[in-house]
Amino acid sequence: PPSAAANLRPGAEQKVVFITARVHPGETPSSFVCQGIIDFLVSQHPIAKVLRDHLVFKIAPMLNPDGVYLGNYRCSLMGFDLNRHWANPSPWAHPTLHGVKQLIIEMYNNPKINLEFYIDIHAHSTMMNGFMYGNIFEDEERFQRQAVFPKLLCQNAEDFSYSSTSFNRDAVKAGTGRRFLGGLLNDTSYCYTLEVSFYSYVLGGPTSAVPYTEEAYMKLGRNVARTFLDYYRLNSLVERPLVPTPKTR
Fold first, then answer.
1. Can you state the angle between helices 95-108 and 177-184, rounded to 10 degrees?
2. Where are the domains of the chain?
3. Of 180, 221, 246, which Cα lies nearest the Cα of 35?
4. Alpha-carbon distances, residue 29 vs 21, 172, 189, 215 (angstroms)
5. Any idea which of 40-49, 77-86, 134-143 has the lowest mean pLDDT?
6. Is 178 in contact with 120 (CB distance < 8 Å)?
7. Residue 101 is inside which H or E element, if any?
8. Hey, what CATH topology would domain 14-239 get?
9. CA–CA distance, 64 with 46 (Å, rounded to integer)
10. Dihedral (CA of 39, 43, 48, 51) sign
11. In 10 A of CB 203, how many CB atoms?
12. Dihedral angle at the C-alpha atoms of 214, 193, 170, 103, nearest 10 degrees?
């Protein structure tokens, strides 16, 4: 059997990327993006192997299963918009948030674990493309560092827009995962909301909108996963194919 990755051996330091999706049941594209991330990470792709050796991915693909089951658009079975209850989730009324938050706090308090990224995946009903929301910090250097991942993602994914990416601290969003965990975790953790359009992305001019397909959503997920390779500068570790690939004319 293949030996366990070095980062999974007992006592090893772990860099953790925590990903959640589908807190709003009507935002089905978020599930396809998450599916793309998962499928890529468990694949035999050389990049996926390097990522598994260097990072630990924790993924909660559906934070609102009862809302999804009922066909709700935004709320859970009990009528809560779960993405406004991160500050004080009830184990009874918001059990998925409570469980995920406990796990994140446990990891945060573990000196052997560096919780480096938290990404919550959503879909957007009025904007095009994929884009991110990040947090605003007083510390200019921390603010600049937070922009690195979306800038790298922009280079990997043709449908991801850095110009639509924004950093805010709107009071309405205070109970969201990104905002709450951004305030809880320290400056070595980056918290983002990844949004993807319900309908289209733009290539080239403003008139050339391309409708999203399930495959295009999953491709965005694959590109999110690949971006960690660039972020952690692991490119040199990827096994190259032995046969040179023919150059296209």
1. 30
2. 14-239
3. 221
4. 10, 23, 26, 10
5. 134-143
6. yes
7. helix 95-108
8. Aminopeptidase (3.40.630)
9. 33
10. positive
11. 11
12. 130
Which residues 6+ apart lie within 8 Å of 93 measured at CB?
A: 78, 80, 85
Beta pairing, strands 190-197 & 113-124: parallel
Confidence at 246, pLDDT banded by 50, 70, 90? low
Bridge partners of 113, per DSSP, are: 14
- Amino acid 107 reads M
- pLDDT confidence tier of residue 172, bands split at 50, 70 and 90: confident
Pairwise CA distance, residues 175 & 16, whole Å? 23
What's the full length of the chain, in residues?
Answer: 249
Q: Are 67 and 97 in contact (CB under 8 A)?
A: no
pLDDT value, residue 206: 65
Task: Report d(CA 78, CA 113) in Å as an integer.
Answer: 34
- pTM as predicted: 0.92
Cα–Cα distance between 173 and 105 in angstroms, integer?
20
Strands (E), the chain: 14-21, 56-60, 113-124, 130-135, 166-168, 190-197, 200-202, 209-211
Helices (H) and strands (E) in the chain, counts: 8, 8
Whole-angstrom distance, CA of residue 153 vs CA of residue 175: 26
Q: How far apart are CA 161 and CA 184, in angstroms?
A: 28
Is 195 among the catalytic positions?
yes
The dihedral sign for the CA sequence 197, 80, 17, 168: positive
What's the CA gap between 98 and 31, in Å, rounded?
Answer: 21
Rg (alpha carbons) of the chain, rounded to whole number: 18
| Given 27, 116, 158, 195, the catalytic residue | 195
